[in-house]
Design goal:
Blueprint: H1 2-6, E1 9-14, E2 22-26, E3 32-37, H2 42-62, H3 71-81, H4 95-101, H5 113-120, E4 130-131, E5 139-142, E6 148-155, E7 158-163, E8 169-172, E9 177-183
Parallel strand pairs: 1-3
Antiparallel strand pairs: 2-3, 4-9, 5-6, 5-9, 6-7, 7-8
Helix pairs in contact: 2-3
Length: 188
């Protein structure tokens, strides 16, 4: 709360957005606004709030010419988050994931598949979806916008999947949430 008050942040809790958990903006009058999705569990909410506060603090400390998720932001995010990474705030099973994540914080917690899945264990209303990594190769699945894909092989960290209507190949993070449709028994 002190961070919000000190920096005079207008914090707004918004309907769920598929593409982001939160964001930070500074308007033309220099006022700060942070939006956070209402559907986040308390642990993901806290981390998202500190992530967005780190943008504000890093820009104030280093200027607006820095990269949004560059080294200045990473260091600021680490410093702001450090007081919270303890058993009085986060469940014990999340602490190792958080410690690993903060060695080199990512632009999104969702690109850290292990941390994202660990956070999902605390979702208040877990969706009836699967993660890509849970599906067998060749399985057909649907994403939030209705497009249908066929799961392909893993390429380093992400899965190569083919969109059925266009034949185009897309890469999916292992923790992407999808709706299982049917396994393709006719080969890959």
């Amino acid at each position: 709360m002190s961070l919000i008050q000190t920096h005079e942040v207008h914090l707004k809790i918004v309907n769920t957005r598929v593409t982001r958990h939160g964001d930070y903006r500074r308007n033309t009058q220099g006022k700060h606004a942070i939006t956070i999705n209402a559907s986040l569990n308390p642990y993901r909410f806290l981390m998202t709030l500190i992530h967005e506060m780190a943008h504000l603090v890093a820009f104030e400390d280093f200027g607006y010419h820095i990269k949004p998720h560059g080294i200045e932001w990473k260091q600021t995010f680490r410093n702001l988050m450090l007081p919270f990474i303890r058993p009085e705030v986060f469940p014990l099973d999340l602490l190792p994931y958080l410690a690993r994540h903060f060695k080199n914080p990512k632009a999104s917690t969702d690109t850290d598949a292990a941390l994202s899945v660990a956070f999902s264990n605390y979702d208040l209303n877990p969706p009836q979806e699967n993660y890509i990594f849970e599906l067998s190769e060749g399985t057909l699945f649907k994403i939030y916008n209705g497009k249908i894909f066929k799961k392909g092989p893993k390429r380093v960290k992400r899965y190569e999947c083919i969109e059925m209507s266009s034949g185009k190949t897309y890469l999916f993070q292992p923790n992407a949430k999808v709706s299982f449709l049917i396994a393709d028994n006719h080969g890959k």
